[in-house]
Structures are given as C-alpha cells and as structure tokens.
Specification:
This is Activator of Hsp90 ATPase homologue 1/2-like C-terminal domain-containing protein. The protein has a 7-stranded antiparallel beta sheet, covered by helices on one side. The chain is globular and about 40 Å long. It has 146 residues and is an alpha+beta fold. 23% of the residues lie in helices and 38% in strands. It has 4 helices and 7 strands, in the order βααββββββαα.
C-alpha cells in the first residue's frame, strides 16, 4: 500500500469547510510537542505564498509542504517537504447529506524508509488532525495533543 486515507464529516458546506481548513488552520491545529517540527519555537501554522508553513517565535519559519493544487472548494494538494520520500497529501471536500465529507489521502509512502511509512500507514496522525478540524463543531473533542 502506497497511500493511507482518513476522513471526517463536518456539518457545514464544502466552501466553508475548505475556507476553515485552509484560512483558519492556525485556529484548529492543536499545539503540542508531537504536532510541530520545532516545538520549542513553533507559534503558528498557515498556508501562505504557496506553502504550508510552521511559524516560529523568532520570526522564522519552516516550509512543511509546497502547494501543488489549490482548487476551492473542492480540493487541496501539497507536497510533503519534511520526509525524504516523494509524497503528496490531498484533501478533498465533497457535499454529503448534512455537511461535507473531508477525505485526506497521503500518497507516496512507498518512497519512505519502511519504519516511517509504517507509522504513517497506521493513519493515526491524520485521524487526529482531522479530529482537531472536526472538533470545532463537536465541542472540545480531540483538542489535546501530546
């Protein structure tokens, strides 16, 4: 298997879901030592200038992804810049009864060392991140990071 998928349904329309996922990522992304590249300096996260960036307290940043497709309100694709493989993460937003299904697919796991690919294949981190995103409509569920 060279990809892993995670999904969640949120009670809003696809355009709003796309906007909140992208423009408001810093509001729903949970801070924690496991959710940052540099936990000691990280103060925020945002999509800007064609990249997904972790912002640092000293004014610096690290680019964690390079945007490959930005197609509101339907989909967003970025290339992973943190791992040594050639990976893409696609997030698709589809209208369903009662809201929007958000499906995240992380592709290219076969380009990673087996131990790293195995960790990502379990899908644990993406399920947590989508839980943070959906949590804003479900109260405080999923708001703690390790």
């Amino acid at each position: 298997m060279s990809s892993v998928r995670a999904s969640v349904t949120v009670p809003i329309d696809p355009a709003t879901a796309f906007r909140v996922f992208t423009d408001e990522i810093d509001a729903w992304y949970v801070r924690g030592r496991h959710s940052w590249v540099d936990p000691a300096r990280a103060v925020g996260i945002r999509f800007e200038d064609g990249y997904l960036r972790e912002l640092w307290s000293d004014g610096g940043h690290v680019d964690t992804g390079r945007i490959l497709a930005w197609e509101p309100p339907r989909r967003l694709v970025w290339a992973d810049l943190l791992n040594d493989g050639e990976m893409e993460i696609e997030v698709a937003f589809s209208a369903v009864e009662g809201g929007t299904e958000v499906v995240l697919e992380h592709r290219g796991l076969d380009t990673l060392p087996p131990d790293v690919a195995g960790r990502i294949r379990r899908g644990y981190s993406w399920n947590i991140a989508l839980g943070w995103f959906a949590g804003q409509w479900q109260g405080a569920q999923g708001r703690e990071a390790g």
